[in-house]
Specification:
The complex is a heterodimer. By secondary structure, chain A is an all-alpha fold. Chain A contains 7 helices and 2 strands. Chain A has 2 domains: 122 residues, DnaJ domain (Helix Hairpins, Orthogonal Bundle), CATH 1.10.287.110; 89 residues. Helices cover 59% and strands 2% of the residues of chain A. Chain B is of the alpha+beta class. Chain B is built from 16 helices and 29 strands. In chain B, the strands form 7 sheets. A 7-stranded mixed sheet of chain B has the order 19-18-13-14-15-20-23. In chain B, strands 1, 2, 3, 4, 11 and 12 form a 6-stranded mixed sheet that branches. In chain B, strands 22-21-25-26 form a 4-stranded antiparallel sheet, with no helix packed on it. Chain B starts with a strand and ends in a 13-residue tail after the last helix. Classes of the chains: A mainly alpha, B alpha+beta. Chains A and B meet through β1, β2, α2 and α3 of A and β20, β21, β23, β24 and β25 of B.
Chain lengths: 233, 610
């Protein structure tokens, strides 16, 4: 039987693991086979080295695994890696090097894009700390209470939108979103602190992460509402 | 030995080539006569193919096909160019879904990349002469809104001209490079590029030599020509007599020229007198009134600006400076509106007609491997994804993603036992697939027959630094793979085109009668088009009704002959029509009205980056 489907249905991307943070191992340079350590560029023959699947976004950019990131440090790291790997600085290199720079700079861009946005970063962070795959596209599941609240808010926004226009609706939505975002940011520091502590309270930490995950989920629902309002205006 | 890489601004009306010398001096390379601009015009006639200034001189020669503004056709399907074709006076035909210009003198059709190649070849030889060495590599600029197919077509034009196109870069980005931003001056800069017919807005983040295009937005039909039209409409409303005369294209053209003159005059004065004695028309246009007239266009431009800012989460005050590009930015009201909107200094000291080519030369210098202090980070202008069940678009790479970029997603089957999956690659922001642009379609086969929803098909999008997209579909259990580099959606793949051309050519060689017929039909169509245009623009004062009728009858006769398969008949009927219209052409030439016609086939100056 040979059946052709016009379109393929999207599936939850559980198996699309983002790279987890396995130790780098004893890697050697693909070109001169000298030992590499953790270098992006071989110290002996100055060839760029592939990141490999094992490298997580924090390590790609050479940043500490934290929820709070100094945006200036983040940008500086991004630029440094871009200077190293961007294909423009490898015009005329061998085909192998071009391949590496294309793959690496794609990952550098993805890492930066993810870590730059505090909410995407928090989402990635949680999965990373738990050693799970980040699933940005999976169906969000909200507690029934939250879901109810959002449904009611949605109705309220719709009537606001038709009666008073998008600005009024956006204002109302922001009044719900802003405190949630504040709570999210507030939890960043304390979670970073707990993770850095010598004696970790695992139970407290996992509670804090679960709370953060719940808030992120709720915010992403609200974010969708915001997008709908913007599209309607 | 360093490579010689030049920067090229392949514009709608004008093109330029520039080079950055070893000493850091950027030079727009002149031709032998010292001219910097090259009109993007190609003239086809019996005695040869002309490019540039020589081609533009042929504008009113009825024996010549004068091709201009071919950039508007670049990388687009015949269907997509419908609106553009209405404004172009040379014949454009549908060749396998792509627009092409018949060259009846050489029995061939020129595609937009081939036309672009003729202009590029001219620039290339100009550069070789000016630099006294071979030039085989280039950076070419395109508008920020150009999609993949348009960028690819521009690259193809380069290849056809014997140039290895190292990079396609956005015109506004080039402008920032020309201003030397990046070496020492950090910040977030806006580039406001208003040409004759197009508007581009970009937001550039410049830090320690790294250029990042944070967002782009624009309007492909907004520019100086719109202001002229708005002024003309105003005048037509003032005078009923003018309104009735305004139906005639030469009057309208005259009005447009007057409007342009008035617009330019109002840059230095607050009001201007306009008189068209022939039409008994006299009026005063004040700067205040003109500003009111262009306000809707200012608003349209600013709304593009606002969405670009919103996309990147930047308030106007977050911008450190605004770079002005394109001839229409000389217009005061826009300068004012931009200055007010951002409240920031304007960069307007470099000639807005040269600034893009100069910037292309800077990027060319980077890609020649000579300097690594600058790096241009670019983004995809439009979202990329595939079609899923129900005709819905599933986005893999959202717009404004920095390239190179890679994205992977898992998909599955919808029907039990499904062994093939169609991957339909889309570009655009719309929810439904049919509203987006179709880039490619390919099939992954050899999927094991399993219940619906079980197979795992990994789809990978990889965009390289040039924004060229490669899509791979892989069935995870069998490793069955289908890998497609997306090549132009403006027609067929390169090899297909080559095969088709070869077939067409050999067929025509075998069959003389067929070639004669094709040739004759093309010529006939050209003559018919020219005749119809002429009939539209003359009144009974020049062409007696009886003559008009005779010409119309012959047009019909010729059209009938074209439906037949006898090339000789078509050719004879074409000659007859030619003879009938000959006296008209002479009379037209003798009329003072021919003055108004001169140069009307070309768009206005000031939009060379449109």
């Amino acid at each position: 039987m040979s059946e052709t489907g016009i379109a393929a249905k999207k599936m939850t991307s559980e198996d699309l693991l983002h790279p987890d943070s396995r130790e780098p191992g004893h890697s050697i340079c693909w070109n001169c086979e000298k030992s590499l350590g953790d270098e992006d560029v071989c110290p002996s023959c100055v060839r760029v080295q592939p990141f490999g699947e094992e490298r997580d976004y924090y390590r790609i950019l050479g940043l500490p695994v934290k929820l709070t990131l100094d945006p200036r440090l983040l940008v500086a790291a991004y630029h440094e890696k871009s200077r190293t790997f961007h294909p423009d600085h490898h015009v005329g290199d061998s085909e192998k090097e071009q391949e590496i720079t294309l793959a690496n700079s794609s990952l550098v861009n993805l890492a930066f894009r993810t870590l730059r946005d505090p909410f995407l970063r928090a989402h990635y962070f949680i999965s990373h700390v738990k050693g799970e795959a980040a699933r940005p596209n999976r169906k969000a599941t909200l507690p029934p209470g939250d879901l109810m609240e959002i449904m009611e808010l949605k109705e309220e926004l719709e009537s606001l939108l038709s009666a008073h226009g998008p600005q009024a609706a956006e204002q109302r939505l922001r009044s719900v979103m802003d405190p949630i975002e504040r709570d999210i940011f507030d939890s960043f520091e304390s979670i970073d602190h707990q993770l850095g502590a010598d004696e970790k309270d695992e139970a407290a930490l996992s509670r804090a992460l679960a709370t953060l995950a719940g808030r992120l989920e709720k915010r992403s629902y609200l974010q969708n509402l915001l997008r709908e309002i913007k599209e309607a205006s | 030995m360093n490579r010689t890489v030049v920067g090229i601004d392949l514009g709608t009306t004008h093109s330029l080539v520039a080079y950055r010398h070893e000493d850091g001096r950027v030079e727009v390379l002149p031709d032998r006569e010292g001219r910097l601009l090259l009109p993007s015009v190609v003239a086809l006639s019996r005695d040869g193919v002309r490019v540039g200034w020589n081609a533009r001189e042929r504008v009113n020669d009825p024996e010549t096909t004068v091709i201009y503004a071919a950039k508007r056709l670049m990388g687009r399907s015949f269907e997509e160019t419908e609106a553009e074709r209405r404004h172009l006076t040379y014949p454009i035909v549908d060749r396998n879904g792509s627009p092409a210009v018949p060259d009846p003198f050489r029995n061939r059709f020129l595609t937009p990349p081939e036309i672009g190649a003729l202009v590029l070849r001219e620039l290339r030889s100009r550069a070789e002469e000016a630099l006294s060495r071979e030039v085989t590599e280039a950076v070419i600029t395109v508008p920020a809104y150009f999609n993949d197919a348009q960028r690819q077509a521009t690259k193809d034009a380069g290849s056809l001209a014997g140039l290895n196109v190292l990079r396609i870069i956005n015109e506004p980005t080039a402008a920032a490079l020309a201003y030397g931003l990046g070496s020492g001056k950090d910040g977030l800069f806006a580039v406001f590029d208003l040409g004759g017919g197009t508007f581009d807005f970009s937001l550039l983040d410049i830090r320690k030599g790294i250029f990042e295009v944070r967002a782009t937005n624009g309007d492909t039909h907004l520019g100086g020509e719109d202001f002229d039209r708005a002024i003309v409409t105003e005048w037509l409303g003032e005078s009923p007599k003018l309104l009735s005369l305004g139906e005639r294209s030469e009057v309208r053209d005259l009005l447009r020229k007057e409007a342009e003159r008035a617009k330019i005059a109002l840059s230095s004065r607050t009001e201007v007198e306009v008189a068209i004695p022939a039409a008994g028309f006299r009026t005063t246009l004040t700067r205040a009134r003109m500003n009111e007239l262009v306000e809707p266009f200012v608003e349209r431009a600013l709304s593009c600006v606002r969405s670009a800012l919103a996309d990147s989460g930047t308030p106007p005050s977050g911008v450190d400076g605004v770079i002005l590009v394109g001839g229409s930015t000389r217009f005061l009201r826009f300068k004012e509106a931009v200055a007010t909107f951002f409240g920031k200094p304007l960069f307007d000291t470099v000639d807005p007609d040269l600034v893009v080519a100069e910037g292309a030369a800077v990027q060319a210098d980077i890609l020649s491997g000579r300097r690594k202090d600058l790096l241009l980070l670019d983004v995809t202008p439009l979202s990329l994804g595939i079609e899923t069940i129900g005709g819905v678009t599933s986005t893999l790479i959202p717009r404004n993603t920095t390239v190179p970029a890679q994205a992977k997603e898992l998909f599955t089957t919808y029907v039990d036992g499904q062994t093939n999956v169609d991957i339909h690659v889309l570009q655009g922001e719309r929810e439904m697939a049919r509203d987006n642009r179709s880039l490619a379609r390919f099939t992954l086969s050899g999927i094991p027959p399993l219940p619906a929803g079980t197979p795992r098909i990994e789809v990978t999008f990889q965009i390289d630094a040039n924004g060229i997209l490669e899509v791979t579909a892989r069935e995870q259990t069998t490793g069955q793979m289908s890998n497609v580099v997306i090549h132009p959606s403006y027609g067929l793949g390169k090899d297909d085109v080559r095969t088709l051309l070869k077939e067409a050519f050999s067929h025509a060689q075998e069959d003389f009668a067929t070639r004669l017929l094709v040739d004759a039909r093309t010529e006939a169509q050209t003559v018919i088009n020219a005749t119809i245009r002429a009939l539209e623009r003359v009144g009974s004062d020049i062409l007696p009704d009886a003559d008009r009728e005779a010409i119309s009858r012959q047009v019909e006769t010729l059209k009938k002959a074209m439906e037949g398969t006898d090339g000789r008949t078509v050719r004879d009927e074409t000659r007859l029509l030619d003879n009938l219209t000959q006296p008209l052409a002479e009379r037209l030439m003798n009329q003072s009205i021919s003055n108004a016609l001169s140069g009307m086939a070309l768009p206005k100056e000031g939009g060379s980056h449109a």
